[in-house]
Write a structure and sequence with these properties.
InterPro entries: AP_endonuc_1, Endo/exonu/phosph_ase_sf, Endo/exonuclease/phosphatase, Znf_GRF. With 343 residues, this protein is α+β, with helices and mostly antiparallel strands. Helices cover 30% and strands 12% of the residues.
Length: 343
């Protein structure tokens, strides 16, 4: 409300100075019941402070003669006084834009003389996506006339738009310095260039130079991480080769059968053990439970989390997955609600 009052004072001051004024943008208030889908179910709709402010700011009956109460006109209602469903804002969380379940919060307001003489039409662009609001606009029959001088609050007079590069000192704040730091800084500033070079040389000479052993502990060469390998190892001359009789020991057919049976038994045991482990983990990690079906459409629900402060903060619940819309529309979200059981 403080912003509303300041906006009105500034706009009326410009009108008193002989200028025309257009107020364009998101005022965050649905003025009349026709500008809000669910105005009937809202308590004290007409008593909202924002709506009372707009009542005093605007002319009630649009462009009709003799209806002047406020200095400004809602240009859209001037050209479309009875247009229903003309909304500019929808809830993105509930998907209300899909069924046009929203409100009109964005306006093109103009002073009465300007709207009556120059406005040709006013429009909304609900098909333009990219935000929870849609663009609004108006068509004026005017020609640009250069002003003698820019207004004192014009953006070009702001420092960040002056066209000159700002110094970094403008972003810094001078701090109070203690006496010891100020005295040492003064001594350094009074040194001659020769003294400064001598001090730098003295500092470099007092630095400890790394020893030969220390240098070996420095950064390693990349080749130090690789060990030389011989692709063709040579046999030692003193190595005795085994005889052919010791290398080749023929197995009997009975030994082959026993080895085959033992291998199959081990493979079967490993398979059984793997199946046991798999069934155990499946029983332990059963995965998410299937979504319940809503009562109105018998369709899978969506899970939501309570974010409102209170005893149920953080609890999960199920609701209809369809977008929010008027209760009389069967294609809109039904009233199904179910708390999620704690796992």
């Amino acid at each position: 409300m403080r912003f509303y009052r300041l906006l009105q004072i500034r706009a009326e001051a410009l009108l008193a100075a002989g200028s025309h004024v257009i107020i364009l943008g998101d005022l965050n208030t649905a003025h009349r019941p026709i500008d809000h889908w669910d105005a009937v179910n809202l308590e004290c709709f007409e008593e909202d402070p924002g709506r009372k402010w707009m009542d005093h700011l605007l002319s009630n009956l649009g462009c009709q003669a003799g209806s002047h109460t406020g200095p400004f006109i809602d240009s859209y209602r001037c050209f479309h006084p009875n247009q229903k469903g003309a909304f500019t804002c929808w809830s993105t969380v509930s998907g209300a834009r899909h069924l046009n379940y929203g409100s009109r919060l964005d306006y093109v307001l103009g002073d009465r003389t300007l709207v009556m003489d120059t406005f040709q039409t006013s429009f909304l662009l609900p098909e333009v996506m990219g935000s929870d609001h849609c663009p609004v606009g108006a068509v004026l029959s005017v020609s640009s006339v250069p002003a003698k001088q820019c207004p004192p609050l014009c953006t070009r007079f702001l420092p960040e738009f002056a066209g000159t590069q700002l110094k970094i000192l403008r972003f810094l704040v001078r701090l109070k310095q203690d006496p010891v730091f100020r005295q040492s800084a003064l001594q350094l500033s009074n040194q001659t260039p020769v003294q400064m070079r001598q001090n730098k040389a003295r500092v470099r000479s007092t630095r400890s130079r790394p020893s030969q052993a220390g240098s070996s502990r420095g950064q390693k060469n990349l080749m130090s991480y690789f060990q030389p390998s011989s692709s063709r190892p040579q046999a030692s001359p003193n190595l005795e080769l085994p005889s052919l009789d010791t290398l080749v020991t023929p197995k009997t057919s009975e030994e082959d059968v026993m080895a085959n049976v033992e291998g199959q038994a081990k493979a079967s045991e490993a398979k059984d053990e793997k199946e046991v482990r798999t069934s155990f983990w499946k029983s332990l990690l059963r995965g998410p439970l299937p979504m319940p079906l809503c009562g109105g459409h018998r369709e899978p629900c969506v899970m939501r989390t309570v974010k409102k402060p209170g005893p149920n903060l953080g609890r999960h619940f199920y609701m209809c997955a369809r977008p929010q819309g008027p209760p009389t529309d069967p294609s809109s979200r039904c009233s199904f609600f179910l708390w999620s059981r704690p796992s």
